[in-house]
Specification:
Elements lengths: L2 H5 L8 H63 L5 H29 L6 H18 L1
Helix pairs in contact: 2-3, 2-4
Length: 137
């Protein structure tokens, strides 16, 4: 019997060896398909994250420059009532305290973050495993 003709033939007409070959091919195809789907999903997510990071970086830089200007304004404003060195010291301590609080909150949030996973592919693989288990029984 020709191997190509058994590929599309009914399972009842195939020998055990042919069925095992067919199963091996199908499992290989399934695994490759799931891996490719996972890679495509991660690539798409990576692209979106990269664009978002770039835009956010430009916005953060502008915010940094605005904040630096506001800090200089605060020092100049306090310098009208206090010595310039004392005004600069007060503003510097306030900025450092605020920065420390924000850094602590950010570190806490980062620790709780989940690593990115291809969720759609993971769900599909789970469905495949369930189907295989059901077929074995």
């Amino acid at each position: 019997m020709n191997h190509d003709s058994t590929r599309n033939g009914q399972a009842a007409d195939m020998s055990t060896v042919q069925l095992v070959e067919r199963l091996t091919e199908q499992v290989s195809t399934l695994v490759r398909t799931e891996i490719n789907a996972g890679m495509a999903e991660m690539k798409e997510k990576g692209t979106r994250v990269g664009i978002g990071i770039g835009i956010s970086g430009a916005g953060a830089m502008l915010m940094f420059l605005g904040l630096a200007t506001l800090i200089a304004t605060a020092v100049l404003g306090l310098a009208t009532v206090l010595s310039a060195w004392l005004a600069a010291l007060i503003v510097a301590v306030a900025v450092l305290a605020l920065g420390g609080i924000l850094a602590a909150v950010g570190a806490s949030k980062a620790k709780k973050a989940v690593p990115p996973v291809p969720q759609d592919t993971a769900a599909s693989v789970s469905d495949d495993i369930a189907a295989i288990k059901k077929g074995i029984r």
